[in-house]
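Reopening this ticket.

The earlier resolution said the output was attached, but the attachment link was broken on my side. Pasting everything inline this time so it's all in one place.
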Amino acid sequence: MPGRSRSLSRATRVFAYGATLGLAVDRLVGDPRRGHPVAAFGRAAAAVEERLHHDHRGWGALHTAVCAGATAAAGALAARAVKDSRAASVALTAAAVWAVVGGTTLGREARAIGGALEAGDLEVARERLPHLCGRDPQALDGPAMARAVVESVAENTSDAVVGALFWGAVAGVPGLVGFRAVNTLDAMVGHKSPRHRRFGWASARLDDVAGWPGARLTAVLATVAGGDPRGAARAWRADAARHPSPNAGPVESAFAGALGVRLGGTLAYGGRVEHRPVLNGEGRPVEVADIERAVRLSRRVTGLTLAACVGGRLIVSALKRRNA
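Inline output:
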């Protein structure tokens, strides 16, 4: 089936060129301050929630299906509309990658907080921390904020970069935007607040499933790219399962081991205190300088993810051609 083989090869090239271009644009300009597509999706999802919200898992599942399904369907329709033009397909893939990947903004926010902490300006650091994570900044001192930043860099490397690229390699533009929709819904309704404990259950579980492969890939690449592969592998093996999140556990423990620091412990979300297990207990406490090290590790993981996803598509395409 030579026609099908050429189609597979073309799809692989479109993803490779589009993902590379999209990451380059993200590296150069980052996220827009206004009008970001993810923010637009969030507003639409919130409007749908207002109409569908009931304290019931079934209604929450409908909300998830409508929001994530419509987003993936829109991506599929857009990809179909440009499928006859390789240049347009590459441009659409690049635009989707730029829209869903937030690596540059992640690094900028982390470094901004790190700069404030280094200058001893805890108030500025507390003002910026909510841009990066949902911790209660007033409950954190300098070292605790540094630890929160490193943990957020690790987790968001998986959620905002690796997971999206993985699903883009698997399913093209629909995979890119669909994954980002699921991840955004989890951030909006997947937490255990009284309003969302039942309604957000479906979004949280779907995010766990969709994030599973990207989290493991992130942990593998952090182990490879970090300064202490043995320490990263040891921390991942020993501590990942102790984390309450099935996906954050492997990622944060691998980053902790790679950087030689301790993560986890006591933290505060929305006025409630959580006592999480310590990850990589043999490591030292997080220092402000570790924020920059975490950002650099995140960037190395991003580059390796692109190579792994393109390489994986090439291997699959070659196997399918051989069996055609």
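Reporter confirms the inline version is readable. The mean pLDDT is 93. The chain has eleven helices and two strands.
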